[in-house]
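Before we proceed, please read the two lines closing this message. Let me know whether the structure tokens fit the sequence:

…
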Amino acid sequence: MLNNPLKTLTKKEWLLWLVSLTVVILSNLATNDLDLLTLISALLGVTALIFAAKGNVWAQFLMIIFCILYGIISFRFHYWGEMITYLGMTLPMAAWSAITWLRNPSEENENEVAIRTLNKKHIIGLTISTVIVTGIFYYILAWLDTPNIMFSTLSIVTSFIAASLTMLRSSYYAVGYAANDIVLIVLWVLASLENPAYIPVVVNFAIFLLNDMYGFVSWKKRELERV
């Protein structure tokens, strides 16, 4: 699974990846105040999502780097919930996912992770842990006087669910991240109303949403072929 992931991309995936990169670059260059950190993190994020759609473990390695950069971006706007979520939760969960993906390659294609169907035990455990994590993080965000706390809390919920489903190797991981993308689009639209420099971040997550939707379709197709 540590082979060159670019060799596994289809023509359609190459097109999606390159178009996504182009839109991200142009939207960031169109602003008067170019933020290289935002641009680099977005390019890494888009690439990670394309590799994730293929079930390739390199997606998790790139996600670790993305979490660090996005945490810094969130810190600058005092989005403590985003910073804590990505550095304290999504990053270690991405590292854990990398380990589980490496240990569970697909029998049909060793470059892809094996997909697992969730059972009742997984669903109950995920529900209970989500409630606990949400409660803990909400009080932390309230204590930090986090802007737009309701959306920040919702972002934590969707991020935790998405990261958990990624570790569990479920095709619904992409649905979790798509939901998180929608929440983040709202969060950064609110931030952009105060500072237009954050408009590229909104565009970045809109592109992430498109790629996550493709990821779900890709995993579901592979899951159906396995049956």
Notes: The mean pLDDT is 88.
